[in-house]
Each structure stands twice: as structure tokens, then as C-alpha cells.
Design a protein that fits this description.
This protein is mainly alpha-helical and 219 residues long. The chain has a single domain, classed as Orthogonal Bundle (MetI-like fold), CATH 1.10.3720. It contains 8 helices and no strands. Helix 1 packs across helix 8. The longest helix is centred in the N-terminal third of the chain and has 40 residues. The radius of gyration is 21 Å and the shape is flat. The chain starts with a helix and ends in a 6-residue tail after the last helix. Pfam families: BPD_transp_1. GO terms for molecular function: transmembrane transporter activity. This is Amine acid ABC transporter, permease protein, 3-TM region, His/Glu/Gln/Arg/opine family. InterPro entries: AA_ABC_transptr_permease_3TM (IPR010065), ArtM/GltK/GlnP/TcyL/YhdX-like (IPR043429), MetI-like (IPR000515), MetI-like_sf (IPR035906).
């Protein structure tokens, strides 16, 4: 193991990490928004919307992620929609993660008992007050552990995007290996960097979970 070589490669790896964080961050943000909307539609009682969202979730969960990436990058241009490499990566991560976030948020909403709705009605809360101040915090608390798993998986799945030429962390490592043949040093380095990213996200998730689990009266 040549640590001098790793230190020399760090500037290139940091550029790749920056791209990984950018594409992953956008994918996580958009997938959470779509997940919340999709979960609400799936539990709305409007059958066409329920069937549409369910079909989307089952289709994405039932097809390989790499095929979804290739479809977005190579298939969509033939349908008249051409995206850059960066936005193809964001779209691929968003499409994949949103299917799982829909199920995560749906489970969170389903965990809220009918007694909560009755309590809000007896207090005279308006519909949007009930949704924003009661349902949303309780659903977020219930969905947080599984949602964090999807967020962590989104960051790790960004490594697949090197297949369409996105210059993210794994792409940089593989590119340097092609020139320098220092596979051990490069793969060791990106493993450590991915682990640090995942540990950081997991730590933030645990902090948020403890925060949400505090009794409301004690805040």
C-alpha cells in the first residue's frame, strides 16, 4: 500500500467526491418530494392515482438499476428528451429512490392511528392544520429509519453512474487505475471515502431520530 500515491491522488478524488455529493444530494431531495406526493396519492382513496403510483413503484423495484440508468441516458433521446450526463444521473437516482421513498412514507402515514384524526377533529383543527402540525411530524418520525436506509443507498448507488461517463468518485478511481495500475490504493481510498459519507449520514439520521422521539411537551 503506497500512501504517498493516495495523497497525490486526493485532489482528483475530492473532485469526484464533489460530483458524487452534488448528484446524490439532488437525487435525495427530489426523491423525498416525489416520495411524499406519491405516498399521499397512494393513500388518497382515488383509485386511478393509486394504481398509477403502485405500478410505478413495482416497475422500478422490479427492474435492474443499471438498466434504468441506460434507459434514461440512451433511450430517452430517441423519444425526444435529451439530458446531459449530470442530469441523467440525477434523474436516474431520483427515479430509483423515489419508488422506495413512496413506500417508506406510505408506511409512516399508515402508522398513524384513527385516534389521532379523531383527536384533531375534537380540538377543532382545520384540515391543513391537522396535516401539517399533526400528521406530518408523526409520519416523518415513523418513516425516518427506512427513509435513511434509502438515502444511504442513494449515495452508494451513485457509483453506477460511472457507466454513462459521469465523473464521480468511482469514475475518477477507475480512470486513475487505467493509467497507473494502482488498483489497491484507489479502491481502498474510495471505500474509505464512501464509508465516511455513509457514517456521516447515519449519524445525522440518529441525531434527527432522537430529536423526533423526544416528547413534544419536553421541547
Amino acid at each position: 500500500m503506497d500512501f504517498t500515491y493516495i495523497i497525490d491522488a486526493l485532489p482528483d478524488l475530492m473532485k469526484g467526491l464533489k460530483m458524487t455529493l452534488m448528484v446524490s444530494g439532488l437525487g435525495i431531495l427530489l426523491s423525498c418530494i416525489i416520495g411524499a406526493i406519491g405516498a399521499a396519492l397512494r393513500m388518497s382513496g382515488f383509485k386511478p392515482a393509486e394504481y398509477l403510483v403502485t405500478s410505478y413503484v413495482e416497475f422500478i423495484r422490479g427492474t435492474p438499476y443499471l438498466v434504468q440508468i441506460f434507459f434514461i441516458f440512451y433511450g430517452l433521446p430517441s423519444l425526444g428528451l435529451r439530458l446531459s450526463v449530470f442530469w441523467s444521473g440525477v434523474a436516474a437516482l431520483t427515479v430509483w429512490a423515489s419508488a422506495f421513498q413512496i413506500e417508506n412514507f406510505r408506511a409512516g402515514l399508515a402508522a398513524i392511528g384513527h385516534g389521532v384524526h379523531d383527536a384533531s377533529a375534537s380540538l377543532g383543527l382545520k384540515r391543513w392544520h391537522h396535516a401539517l402540525l399533526v400528521v406530518l411530524p408523526l409520519a416523518a418520525r415513523a418513516a425516518l429509519p427506512s427513509s435513511m436506509n434509502t438515502i444511504v443507498a442513494t449515495v452508494k448507488n451513485s457509483a453506477y453512474l460511472q457507466a454513462i461517463g459521469l465523473v464521480e468518485l468511482t469514475f475518477v478511481a477507475v480512470d486513475r487505475i487505467a493509467y497507473d495500475f494502482r488498483a489497491i490504493e484507489m479502491f481502498f481510498s474510495i471505500c474509505v471515502i464512501y464509508l465516511l459519507c455513509v457514517f456521516t449520514l447515519s449519524g445525522l439520521g440518529h441525531v434527527l431520530e432522537r430529536r423526533l422521539n423526544r416528547p413534544f411537551a419536553g421541547r
